[in-house]
Write a structure and sequence with these properties.
By secondary structure, the chain is an alpha/beta fold. About 30% of the residues lie in helices and about 20% in strands. The protein has helices spanning about 1-10, 80-90, 130-140, 175-190, 295-310, 325-330, 350-360, 360-375, 380-395, 420-430, 440-445, 510-530, 565, and strands at about 35, 40-45, 55, 60-65, 100-105, 115, 150-155, 160, 165-170, 195, 200, 215-220, 230, 240-245, 245, 255-265, 270-280, 285-290, 315, 320, 340-345, 450, 470-480, 480-490, 495-505. The strands form seven sheets. Strands 6-5-25-24-23-22 form a six-stranded antiparallel β-sheet, with helices on both faces. It is globular and about 90 Å long.
Length: about 575
């Protein structure tokens, strides 16, 4: 019997190839010190803009500019020298004078350096870390992988399921309430009219559940002095309401208070008690999003609600049981569970596009954690994710973990340390320029980046530089960090990869620093235009990127936070 149950479990679970997991402990954080490449002397990062005038040679190394820069040389400056002079002027400007700015520009195909300043300084690139985590997830799962969520149970007899239903997930980071209704639709389409059993889930809090569990609570004002009408989704038993709020005589904005408490029924079933107080304006109607960490319970009770909404009879409750026990109990009752319904997530390629274009922190962390967990056949964790990220860095851009510090998949950390040179290596490898990545995976990753002047966190940038559609990249932002890493394509035969990172000890004026970054990249583009015979048309977002609907609740330039709340499941979207 045990052998038979084991065979059934193997058939139910997903086969995923596991990868190596190196030690993920980051090295000790050290102060950032800018290095002046002409002399090797260390300079105060706050005075990086006051460095001696420098230009760049073809090898990308800084060298002193001749006095002729001031007009005392007979022969004209080369295109490289002109670009270097303009870039250095921008780096010395008030926009970038505070803190330290690292720049590295190289030929995407050959890796030949073109421009570099402070390129080997370990800097914090904030959300540029998502370049690593999304490349790792694609490498582990593939661009076409979809997270399945299935309902298992006995085959229906005359429209009746006589037994329990097992809601079996796969840690889908995008599973939603709407997906539970899709599963219910599938059951109804089979002619199922009743379920004589419980909804069973595993003990893991996220495998079978809705990771970002948000229950919509509808609130409609009553008559003045009377309580509002508050309702949960039809048949949703998980939430119990206590309403002490009243309706105001004036149509002012609602001043309601919300308090939640987790409790249990006498039978041990979970319940969330939502208390609503305060006042609501006359004729007001609003929806309150109830966030909950009861992820599997939310999924199970939402499924029950969806069944009832489709006139499928259900009188059971939530039950927690491991899959092996469920299969064994089913066999002892004379039947083998079959798949009754299935929902599949969007492809990992499209999920990566959502992450990189709109810089969604919680989804970046959750994607790489689940990818690592599936690869290692273990519950997802950040330790596993970091191990796989370091392993990807070692396998592909061949970066030693001793020289890189990452401790999240999102970049929402002040401990991150990566040099601009290494960021360029990461883009070249993940984007398929070095030839060591799977072509389909590289294509999916490259197309996931935001397009300047077109979409994502770059949709409103570079519009005044003539570079709209000529840059794909990933932004990064913390209070003391502004970063941009990506690909510049002006000459189709000569795409360039660049990384531009500014760090400071004090909060940066983001708009000013971003404007300066755009001016620096514009100078690189002008250099390309002067030295190229063929110019490239603007980049057009390629499917699936073009099909991604932008989030409706994002500000133009969202900022990152490192509060505990932001690091949890309810993390907002950031650039």
């Amino acid at each position: 019997m045990k052998a038979f149950v084991a065979a059934v479990l193997v058939a139910l679970l997903l086969p995923v190839t596991a990868g190596a997991t190196p030690d993920a402990r980051p090295r000790k954080l050290t102060p950032i010190v800018a290095k002046q490449r002409t002399t090797g002397k260390q300079t105060d990062p706050k005075r990086i803009g006051a460095n001696a005038r420098v230009a760049f040679n073809h090898a990308g190394e800084l060298r002193p500019m001749k006095d002729s820069v001031m007009g005392r040389r007979a022969e004209p400056l080369t295109a490289e020298e002109e670009a270097a002079a303009q870039i250095q002027k921008l780096l010395r400007s008030p926009l970038l004078r505070r803190g330290v700015t690292g720049l590295y520009v190289a030929d995407a195909k050959s890796g030949q350096p073109l421009f570099a300043v402070n390129a080997d300084d370990p800097l914090n690139p904030a959300s540029n870390v998502k370049l690593i985590s999304t490349a790792t997830a694609l490498d582990l799962l593939g661009a076409d992988f979809r997270y399945p969520t299935r309902i298992l149970g006995p085959a229906p007899q005359n429209g009746v399921v006589k037994g329990d239903l097992y809601l079996l997930g796969s840690y889908d980071p995008t599973l939603s309430i709407a997906d539970m209704h899709e599963l219910a639709d599938t059951l109804a389409a089979q002619g199922i009219t009743a379920v004589e059993g419980n909804i069973v889930v595993g003990a893991d809090p996220t495998r079978d559940g809705i990771y970002r569990a948000i229950v919509p609570i509808d609130i409609v004002a009553g008559e003045p002095g009377q309580p509002p009408t508050v309702t949960t989704p039809m048949g949703f038993d998980l939430v119990q309401l206590k309403v002490t709020a009243t309706t105001s005589k004036k149509p002012h904005r609602a001043r309601l208070t919300y308090k939640t408490e987790l409790t249990q029924t006498p039978e041990g079933q979970p319940r969330i008690v939502l208390s609503i107080g305060g006042a609501i304006g006359k004729d007001a109607h609003l929806e309150y999003p109830l966030w909950t960490r009861q992820r599997t319970a939310t999924a199970a009770y939402t499924l029950v609600s969806a069944l009832r909404a489709r006139a499928i009879g259900f009188t059971g409750e939530l039950e927690v049981k491991e899959l092996g026990d469920f299969v064994g109990d089913s066999i002892s009752r004379g039947y083998l569970p079959v798949e009754l319904a299935r929902h599949e997530s969007d492809t990992v390629g499209n999920i990566v596009t959502r992450i990189n274009k709109w810089s969604i922190n919680w989804l970046a962390d959750r994607l790489v954690m689940t990818a690592a967990g599936l690869a290692k056949h273990q519950p997802p964790s950040m330790d596993l994710a970091l191990g796989e990220m370091y392993a990807w860095l070692d396998r592909h851009p061949h970066l030693d973990k001793k020289n890189v510090v990452v401790d999240t998949g999102s970049g929402l950390s002040y401990r991150t340390q990566i040099t601009p040179t290494d960021l360029v290596s990461i883009v070249r490898s993940a984007g398929g320029f070095t030839g060591d990545a799977d072509p389909d995976t590289a294509k999916a990753w490259l197309h996931s980046l935001a397009v300047a002047g077109t979409d994502g966190t770059l949709q409103h940038r570079f519009r005044n530089t003539g570079l709209s559609g000529h840059i794909v990249g990933k932004t990064g932002s913390l209070s003391t960090v502004i970063a941009l890493t990506g690909v510049l394509e002006v000459d189709p035969s000569r795409p360039l990869v660049f990384s531009l990172v500014t760090n400071s000890d004090a909060p940066l004026v983001k708009k000013m620093v971003r404007r300066a970054h755009e001016q620096v990249i514009a100078e690189v583009a002008r250099y390309l235009e002067k030295t190229s015979s063929k110019l490239s048309p603007p980049v057009t977002p390629i499917s699936p990127a073009a099909a991604i609907t932008p989030p409706t609740d994002l500000p133009d330039e969202p900022e990152e936070s490192t509060t505990d709340k932001a690091l949890d499941a309810e993390t907002a979207n950031h650039d």
